[in-house]
Amino acid sequence: MTSFPPRQSYPSTKIKLGAVLFSVLAFTDDDGKVVTRIEEWIVRSIRARRNSLTKNGMPVFYAVKDAPKQVNLAQKNQFTWVKKTPKAGDYGWHKSIWAGYLKAFRVGDDLPFGIYTTKRAALKYAIADQKCLIDYYQEDISLSQASGDAQEAEEWQRELRAAQNVQKALERRYGALK
Fold this sequence. Notes:
With 178 residues, this protein is an alpha+beta fold. It is 32% helix and 26% strand.
């Protein structure tokens, strides 16, 4: 069994507002075509965690120094980075961003799973993650064959082929970055 890839550490000295981080999304669509997308995550703010400065609704002034800082990330895509006015080049963050496009982690902690500081590291993670998924499918195929369920084994075979195609596409994309 392949080990799951580790999270990347991100020292508090390197964290800056506006820093760009990357993740990879890879899947097979309904037509059987493999889609790989490198997503950008932008550091939007570094602030004290919500509700860390109050206790039961009352301000706690001694907690200001010790409040844990939190790094807030937003995925940059066509739903979060929008045209603000009809003027040329006037783009900015949408005022209301869906929670699925937001992530957060504490300063000094590792980055969230799948998010890395470079495109190469994100692709490397996606390839290792896909290998774990392929191992899982192979395990399920052998269990299905042992139980004698041919239909379930056939479904797992289809899933395995799709996962192998995704892995090949990720490896091609990784090779193209070199």
